[in-house]
C-alpha cells in the first residue's frame, strides 16, 4: 500500500495543472490515503485523503454520474473522519450534502446507484445518532429501502444495508414504542441472517439482534428461534482450520449467547431446549474434535491403512497447533 501511494504521488506531481488526467489521478491518490487510514488510523492519511479528494473535485469539470463518483469519495472521507472521532459535526453535515448530491446525479439504472443510496443512508443514520432528529431517521430508512430495491440479489452490500435498516427500525421502535416498527426490525435482521453467502459471524450477530429485540418485546417464540439459529452457526466461525486458541478467542465474541438462548427457552417454557442450548454453546470445540474421531473410526473399518495415515497427520497438526498456541500466548 505504501509503495502504491508513493507511485501515485509521483504521478500527480508529473501532471500539468491543465492535464485532463489530473483529477482522476488525485481521486485515486485520495482514495488510497483513505484506505490506508481505515487500515492504520493515522490522522495524516485522512487529512491527505480529503485534501486530494477536494482538489480532484475542484478540477474535474465533468457532470452527471462521473462527477458523482468524486462527490461520493469525498463524502465518504468526510463521514469517515467524523466516525473515527477526528472530525467535527461540520464534516458530517458536509458528508450528507455531498452524498445527497451524488445520489441526485446518479441515474437509477447505474450499477453504483444502490451503493450510493446506502452510503447516504449511513451518513444520515450517524447524524441521527447525535441529533435524534426524526427526519434524519426517516430519510435513512427511505434510502436504505431504495438501496435494497436497486441492489441485485447476491450483491455483497445487501447484508450491510439490511443490518443498518434493522437498526433504524429498532430506533423507530425505541422512539415511538410502536410494535410494528420492532417487528420490521426483527424481520429485516432475519433476512440478513438467512443470507448463505454472508460471513457466519455477521449472520450470528444479526440473528442475535433479532432475538434480543424479540425478547424485549415479549415474543418468546421468535426470540428462541433466532437464538437457536445463532447457536447452530457457531461451528461455522470456530471451524476445524483454526488453532484451539484461535477458536476459543473467536467463541469469546459470542460469550453469553448460549445463556441468552437458554433464558429464552425457559421463558417459552421449553426446559428441554434450554438444556440443549447450554450444551450446544459449551461443546462446539469438543464436537469438532469428536466428530473427526468418529469419521476416522468409520474410515478405519474400510481402509485401516488410510485411517492410520490420517491419524498420524492429525497428530502432527495437533502438535503444530499447540506450538502455535504457545507462541500466541507469549
How would you describe this structure to a colleague?
By secondary structure, this protein is mainly alpha-helical. The chain has helices at residues 2-13, 22-40, 43-59, 64-83, 89-105, 113-131, 134-150, 158-176, 179-193, 200-216, 220-237, 244-252, 257-267, 271-282, 284-302, 304-329. The chain has 16 helices and no strands. It has a domain at 291-330. The longest helix has 26 residues, at 304-329.
Descriptive key words:
330 residues; mainly alpha; globular
How are the secondary structure elements laid out?
Layout: H1 2-13, H2 22-40, H3 43-59, H4 64-83, H5 89-105, H6 113-131, H7 134-150, H8 158-176, H9 179-193, H10 200-216, H11 220-237, H12 244-252, H13 257-267, H14 271-282, H15 284-302, H16 304-329
What would the average pLDDT be, to the nearest integer?
A: 86
Structural category is mainly alpha
Roughly what fraction of the amino acids lie in strands? under 5%
| Helical stretch tally | 16
From the spread of the alpha carbons, the general shape counts as globular
Query: How many β-strand runs?
Result: 0
Which regions have little confidence, pLDDT < 50, spanning 5+ residues? 289-294, 324-330
Listing every helix as H and every strand as E from the N terminus to the C terminus, the arrangement reads: HHHHHHHHHHHHHHHH
Distance between the termini: 29 Å
Q: How would you characterize the largest beta sheet?
A: none
Cα-based radius of gyration, to the nearest Å:
25 Å
Helical content (DSSP H or I, runs of 4+): over 70%
Condensed summary:
With 330 residues, this protein is an all-alpha fold.
